[in-house]
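User: Structure please.
Assistant: Input sequence and predicted structure:
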Amino acid sequence: MISVENIEKSYNSEKVLKNASLKIEDSEFVSIMGKSGSGKSTLISIMGGFLAPDSGRVLYDGKDIFKYNDSQLSSFRCTKIGFVFQAFGLIPTLNVMDNLLLPSTLGKSQSKEQREYILELCKALEIDTMLKKYPDELSGGQCQRVAIVRALSYEPSVVILDEPTGALDSAMEKKVMELLVKINKEKGTTIIQVTHSERVASYGTRIIKINDGEIA
């Protein structure tokens, strides 16, 4: 279970998150919604261990991740969490396949089965013909699909996605969301997504609203 307790976060004295608290059970598919600037991306960056709060706690199975040292926190992010950034986070000097295999160089195992699973995901999202291309040769929507496959590739127990379909057309949006639903149901993966879209949010099993840094 993930427990976010009384999180506060400010930038330049402007409070972005105000006493934010929520609980997410294992294998839930949660959609977080709110207007631009409401604190959604800051919240999931803290939940993913990429940004420290000013105060409060984030617990995974009862352990406060911000009490980890740098090595422990890095290991947590590399083994527990699959994260899809809004800016995709692809390495421009690596081709698509090397970007997809990058997690294996950061402490995750790589095997024949994993490579086969990556190819299966690539086919599902129609990027299997692009594996030798570099990010600057891809469209925004193609880069987004690569980032999603990379987050799913090593079968993390939690996947966090920041606007996962923002660069996709409606047909590909449907394929991405159906794939996430399938992985959530078949593998028991906990999925947390931030989205502006009511349609995308409806694929989740629960919707959490955030407004001006406060969780409704």
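Helices lie at 40-47, 70-79, 96-101, 112-124, 140-152, 170-187, 198-201.
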